[in-house]
């Protein structure tokens, strides 16, 4: 009759230390990947919301400032034509036109379509989280795999901001079926890869935090927060800004319509 040492199960006794460590590290990696996916989602939401707000601001206010600066440049240029010997007037016209060109460049081309605010559906968020969890480039130490993941993650970010859930699903499916998704062989080599993935995930988490803090401190986010706070108190600051600029545009147009002799007074 075979005697067994009490208290030790044969299956447990046969597990090698490296296998135990690999299992533990895999659990740690899994938890980090879930956290990383959640952070990436929060970061993507912040970027998308700020991007949508910027487009709305430029659509309603920025384009009007571009018109206003162009009118001011026309006024300055007319004064310069009327006073060819006045170097200050000539310089003011040049400065005014440069400022108008800069404002126009920032505002971009006008569109008749009203920009939509960004709002991701729960299914969209779930899909993006799964994509980030599976294909984020910082979760691999293989150079070729990392390059492929970077391209796919950029596509995923674009798809998320455009609200294209089907495209996100396609990106995930393509990667799952790719050779890069195949695991390596041997517990020792796999343990090293897992440790490096953990290190990469932690580094990316720190990067995301820094990126989000920078975005939260940005002038654009401060403006958005100000407008959101005012809206909660019943004020439409964006509408007020539009009305103010429209009034300035009206005054500038009236000045341009004045006879040239009146503008010299």
Which short descriptors sum up this protein?
single chain, 265 residues, mainly alpha, elongated
Parts with pLDDT < 50 across at least 5 consecutive residues = none
Computed Rg:
29 Å
Number of helices: 10
Find the count of extended strands (DSSP E, 2+ residues): 0
Strand proportion: under 5%
Mean pLDDT: 83
Q: What's the shape?
A: elongated
Q: Could you state the order of secondary-structure elements as H and E?
A: HHHHHHHHHH
Helix content range: over 70%
**Biggest sheet: strands, sense, closure?**
none
Structural class: mainly alpha
Distance between the termini: 119 Å
Task: Offer a concise description of the structure.
This protein has 265 residues and is mostly helical. It contains 10 helices and no strands. α2 runs parallel beside α9.
Topology:
Elements: H1 10-13, H2 17-82, H3 87-107, H4 122-135, H5 143-162, H6 165-176, H7 187-217, H8 219-232, H9 237-257, H10 260-263
Helix pairs in contact: 2-3, 2-4, 2-7, 2-9, 4-5, 4-6, 5-6
Task: Describe the overall structure.
The model has no long low-confidence stretch (mean pLDDT 83). The protein has a domain at 23-119 and 183-263. The protein has helices spanning 10-13, 17-82, 87-107, 122-135, 143-162, 165-176, 187-217, 219-232, 237-257, 260-263. It has ten helices and no strands. The chain is elongated and about 100 Å long. It is mainly alpha-helical and 265 residues long.
